[in-house]
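Worked example (supplementary).
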Amino acid sequence: MSAGGSGGSAGEAIPQNKLIVFGVVGGLVAVYLSYFLVSIAGSAFAFIGALGAICAIVWGCSAVRRVASYGLGTGVPSIGMLALGMGVVATMFGLAVGGIAGPVISLITAAIIGLVIGVLANKVLGMGIPIMEKSMTEIASAGSLAILGLSVTMTGTFMFDEVLTYVVATGYIAVIYITAGLAILHPFNANLGSDETQDRTLVTGFEKGAIAMLIAGIVAAVSNGAASTPTILIGLFIWYTAFTKYRELVARDAYDVVGTGLLPTEEELE
Amino acid sequence: MIDIVGILTANVLCVVLITLGGMLISWSVHFVPVGGAPAAMAQATGIGTGTVQLAAGAGLTGLVTAGAMMNMTDSMALVVASGAVGAMIMIGVTMIVGTWVYVYGVGVPPASAKVDYDPITKDRQDIYVSQGTEGHGLPTVSFVSGIIGGALGGLGGALIYYSLMSVSTGLTATNLVGLASIFAVGIFFVNAVIPSYNIGGTIEGFHDPKFKKWPKAVQASFVATLLCALASVLTIGGL
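After joint prediction of all chains, the assembly is encoded as:
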């Protein structure tokens, strides 16, 4: 059975190119801004990295939405796990060799790995999805930026020694892997169907990104380089705003929203 | 800047073994009886979840058992065997519990819709397949196939992990374990997803006609894993 879409391209109000700019520029600017502000003004600014991760996650959701609308032949979750699989290899490589240029090298490496896998999917596996190459490039890059953003929020820096000691060796990288992976794959997986709309899916992306931010904030509580309270508070605020918006959109897209009342008691059933 | 050629020549065997591990994982996924969403409703033969989740569940267990064995010994054969056995146990437990649920919970006999007779037990299959379904539960052949898949997947995962741990590096042991594990997980997921796109949802095991498509996925995995292997060996070797 093919799960995950109707087999055609998805309609969109916001063009994908705008979202690419939003993800790449938002992600990179936030990662660098966070790094410099933390080293100049103090650890409280570590939260900016997570904002970049949210930009990347929303971009990733949109790319997943576009490619999964064609029908992957298997569940949508596969593509989120693939995104982070490619992303984590590229990010570690980029940070290890790049120094201050690490995030840019990570992004480029991720894009190359994504492009290769996209080409393989179409040419070797014969998936026949016209936007596969472009989408895989986008998804891998978004995965890489999400890892970068959350790592910066956890440690306050993207210098590899710190990231290795406080994120990778401690195992928090696994937390990033799953929270960011779910944030990228879940929005389309939860909203797919014939009534799926772009704004509702992307708002879910914001909401899931905020949960990833919140968790990164909790992890930052044990880190010296990053403050956790601003991240947690801002994460909660974004989550609440996005969730309220999501409820509004569900009410808008639903035919009707009715209360079912409480469960009937035993006497009423008789 | 790091000495790319030097690191690669010193660790060429690791790159080869990682790539081989990735290809093994890609092949192994074709053996695992994946039923996807239809199997979750007992409308297709196999375990009721997606390829990636099953491969990841078994493969990551393999990584854990391989890692545990690495604490005891440096012997590659033992580490790789431990990974394979761990993954076999995990997939075996998943399949046997799944079968209990199908037989005693849902109330369907394990039956394959792809073959009329089970190639292993020679039991008749087609008359037990409920109308409107593509089989249900896990017949013997699927179970055996799944165990083979688990063994190959665990072998591949353990091979990747062992190779990454063997790269000559200046990292401390804790950092190396962390980095090698997350690289192994990343490469594992990439190689679990590629075959799942090749299979396109569901497969019953090695007796399924779709199984013949495996060379394509292994080719794709070869290229993708080689790329990941180069990136990971350069990362670990350069530190």
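Two points are worth noting when inspecting this output. The radius of gyration of chain A is 19 Å. Residues 16-253 of chain A form one domain.
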